[in-house]
Write a structure and sequence with these properties.
Blueprint: H1 8-12, H2 25-60, H3 62-81, H4 85-115, H5 121-164
Helix pairs in contact: 2-3, 3-4, 3-5, 4-5
């Protein structure tokens, strides 16, 4: 590490985090803190881009709007029926998963459209698989909704059905 014109003692101060008796403690600690603050600032600067992507998804994708409406209805039913914590967890994860799959589908379609000007069988596969993934998550969301809400809805509807028969 030492060159011909430097002594090993002088070179030690250049090593990150090495502290000699003549090196003040604050000077050694300030560099990592500055790096961590910079890292946090860089992460925070990425949030507007993420929110712009969510905004684009919700403004331009009709299916995403339908999923938001269905998720909002499920949340309203959750409050109406006072579902428990585990059911809220299942509901929140399901809604998030469906919307995330819709976002990935939108991104895949945009990239495929960008790199494939005309029809290509692989482009079709990529788009079909992405759309199929959204369909799978939506079917799973319906299953979760039925498990959580069907027994509660049945207790409301059953008296009318039994009275009509």
């Amino acid at each position: 590490m030492a060159t011909n014109h430097q002594s090993p003692a002088t070179d030690r101060q250049a090593v990150a985090g090495y502290r000699t008796s003549s090196t003040p403690r604050m000077r050694v600690m300030s560099a990592p803190r500055r790096r961590s603050v910079r890292w946090i600032q860089q992460r925070l600067r990425s949030f507007p881009f993420a929110f712009a992507g969510i905004g684009h998804l919700l403004r331009t994708q009709g299916n995403a709007q339908i999923h938001v409406a269905a998720g909002s209805a499920a949340i309203a039913l959750g409050f109406l029926f006072n579902i428990d914590r585990g059911e809220w967890l299942a509901l929140a994860l399901t809604i998030t998963l469906v919307l995330a799959a819709e976002g990935v589908n939108t991104a895949v379609e945009a990239v495929v459209d960008l790199v494939t000007p005309g029809f290509h069988p692989l482009a079709k596969i990529a788009k079909d698989v992405a759309a199929g993934t959204v369909l799978l998550t939506a079917i799973g969301a319906v299953a979760v909704g039925l498990i959580v809400f069907l027994p509660r809805l049945w207790t409301l509807v059953a008296p009318w059905i039994n009275g009509a028969i």
